[in-house]
Design a protein that fits this description.
Layout lengths: L2 E10 L6 H11 L5 E11 L2 E11 L6 H8 L4 E11 L1
Antiparallel strand pairs: 1-3, 1-4, 2-3
Length: 88
Amino acid sequence: MGKVIAQIKVMPDDADTDLDALEDALRGALPDAAELNAVEREDVAFGLTALIVNVGVEDEAGGTEAVEEAFAELDDVESVSVEDVGRV
């Protein structure tokens, strides 16, 4: 098995969400088996900005599932979706 990089889009629940605090919360919620490589911001619409999180995980059954679940449980998160997955 190898490692993959997943690009995960995290949508905040409000345009007024503190994105710096949300980014810190994402870093803190990351499971031990995953590593955060980068976080970018993407303007969506109506003042809403998504966080695009690049995470390295092992290529195994469930892959990004633990990361997705951890992110989705955070306050201020409306939705979490995997945008892309590629091998390292």
